[in-house]
Amino acid sequence: MRRLALLAAVFVTCAAHAGPVTLGLDASLNLLALGNMTVNSSDVEGRVAVGGNANISGHSINTKTGSSALYTGTGLTVGGNLNFTNGSIWGGVQVGGSYTPSQSGTVKGGVQSGTDFDFAAERARLSLLSQTWDAMANTASAYDKWGTLHFDASGQSLAVFDVQAADLLKNMQIDGLAAGSQVLINVHGSTVDFGNHGYTGFEKGQVIFNLVDAVNVLLNGGINASLLALDATVNQGWGQINGQVVVNNWYTSMQVNDAPIPGTTSVRPQTPNAQALPEPGSVALVGLGLAALLAARRRRAAR
Question: Of 5, 47, 220, 228, which is most buried, counting CB atoms within 10 Å of its CB?
Fold first, then answer.
């Protein structure tokens, strides 16, 4: 009943544009790859969960300083097989499949066999969330001014925009974004290249990109935003993204920095298992969510 009430509250909030919106993930989870992950350099400052196989080399997880864990609890959860060549993982590791240990890397907290994180249920919940966000009515339209794509968030607690994938190659600027307010940008297109350009007015923890159609994504440069790209493979790029990231496959060494969306718990008890990671959604609630989504789409089409 508690989960049912929470999901109902999400739909009411989205429909009213009251904000805030959230991925429903604990703030400590910096990167969630529901498919596979392959990295050979760089780091993720927060905790990581991978639904499939993970190949990790020259990478650090769950540390900002290199000398201590950023968050308590399990630093890395892998549903499939883990091949760890070198690097450092803080907070311990859970592996559902086989584990190939590192000869030169460090796991602070040990490695456990088996996980209790329900990746399938979490995918179902996040898929519904992405579609729900996409069905929300825009609060304004993004507009091009001298080659820069502007998003006017003035006077809004939650500003919602729809853009095409090609628009993300332009310089982008958010105008009038107040402290505590949010911007949700729904992006349409199967291939999304964020380019290497300016992001003016993008504040950490206040901007979310929902890549509802994306299959292939390229990230470059520096971006202050969280990312929901449930079906996307993120290919090799460079730079850093400051926010919470949800993708299908993560094949890039782009740095992922700790900048969670406000409103989620950032303190978890020390625990050797994956329960300190986000609480998985319930597949049983998908029917209710799809009904609400259909109603939202009908209202949107009627405008």
Answer: 47
How far is 162 from 160, CA to CA, in rounded Å?
7
Number of domains in the chain: 1
What are the phi and psi torsion angles at 285 (to 5°)?
-90, -5
**How confident is residue 112, by pLDDT bands cut at 50, 70 and 90?**
very high
pLDDT at 226 exceeding the cut of 50: yes
Q: Tell me whether the omega of the peptide bond preceding residue 20 falls within 30 degrees of 0, making it cis.
A: yes
pLDDT at 266 over 80: no
65: Cβ–Cβ under 8 A, 6 or more apart, which residues? none
Answer whether residue 51 is part of any domain.
yes
pLDDT class of 122 with cuts at 50, 70, 90? very high
DSSP 39-89: ESS-EESSEEEESS-EEEEEEEES-SSSSS-SSSS-SEEESS-EEEEEEEE
Rounded Cα distance between 9 and 6, Å, is 5
Domain that holds residue 249: 31-302
- Bridge partners, residue 144, by sequence: 149
